[in-house]
Amino acid sequence: MQMPATSETEMRAANANEDGLRHDWTREEVEALLALPFNDLIFRAQQVHRQWFDPNEVQKSTLLSIKTGGCPEDCGYCNQSAKFDTGLKASKLMEVQKVLEGARRAKEAGASRYCMGAAWRNPKDRDMDAIVAMIQGVREMGMETCMTLGMLSPEQTIRLKEAGLDYYNHNVDTSEEYYSEVVTTRTYQDRLDTIARVQEAGMNVCSGGILGMGESTSDHAGMLMTLANLSPHPQSVPINMLMQVEGTPLGKSKEVDPIDFIRTIAAARIMMPKSVVRLSAGRENMSEETQALCFLAGANSIFVGEQLLTTKNPAVEKDQRMFDKLGLKPMPAHRCPSAV
Ligand code: SAM
Ligand code: DTB
Ligand code: SF4
Description:
Blueprint: H1 8-15, H2 27-34, H3 38-52, E1 57-67, H4 96-108, E2 113-118, H5 128-140, E3 144-148, H6 154-163, E4 167-169, H7 179-182, H8 188-200, E5 204-206, E6 209-211, H9 217-228, E7 236-241, H10 258-271, E8 276-279, H11 288-296, E9 301-303, H12 316-326, E10 329-330
Parallel strand pairs: 1-2, 1-9, 1-10, 2-3, 3-4, 4-5, 6-7, 7-8, 8-9
Helix pairs in contact: 2-9, 3-10, 4-5, 5-6, 9-10, 10-11
The protein binds S-adenosylmethionine, 6-(5-methyl-2-OXO-imidazolidin-4-yl)-hexanoic acid and iron/sulfur cluster (SF4).
């Protein structure tokens, strides 16, 4: 017979999954973490960070929009939705060769992962041959592959796995409670279902969210709780600062205080110790000092290259100067300690 747990420590040990990491966070616990004195929070995050990672290594990914605009979804932050008038020109799925040329350039510029994104609610089966060819071509260059294509059917998930896809990006974006304020054309559960399929197929999950959409600190806690209670943890956790785009419903949202952004990164690092945490969209509008504090808080991945999907990212030379100043070096491919 199992003995009842007697102390908080024992309770935690009992609830830790077989990977030895916690998947039983409560919202209150995460709120308390986010509210710690800043120095204590950063110190804890650094301690955790150094258990699993070289603190001076930062993973570099490059993004490419392989299918831009005209999306039927209504995500309030996104200029690729067909429902908002943002002046963005929609385009068809790119040719495989063009995508591979982009990957080659990204590799030369020092990226170890190529992330390909499509403005789809879900891929159509007729697109899957081209998607598979892109994955195979990028893999042959020795880069890690990531795709973000919207919701997946079980069959499509298997095809991506068989093609050798390393990571699938599917963000939960915010807390479960705030989600319907941001997106109405799908549910939070839809997102979790696709994430579960990707995990079951044995691929690495890249999942995180966006700050600066008018949500509260408690929503930051709720989002981190959802991510950290996934088992296994998403191997990659992108934390985006909203890129405000005129014409989208969230184009004029109240900006997040950089300190709250850094706190969220630190809590993500503490809660998901073996995951790579990406300081994702929003660096274009961030000071070097804020970015340095994000790295200190445990962020160890960025997007490199002048463009994210449709919006701006810092110039490669500017990022290199920042790396030199901070003594950072690129993380080699396949270094994430939790990757499958
Ligand atoms: N359509 C697919 C989907 O939604 O999953 C894939 C592409 S979508 C652009 C990928 C992610 O980019 C979104 O989940 C969201 O987190 C992020 N994103 C989109 N627009 C953004 C913006 N303006 N600022 C920050 N992140 C954004
Ligand atoms: C993620 O979390 N952020 C990236 C990637 N995953 C797909 C996308 C950021 C997009 C920012 C807005 C744009 O450039 O269109
Ligand atoms: Fe479409 Fe993805 Fe943009 Fe939502 S975030 S509108 S699903 S491209």
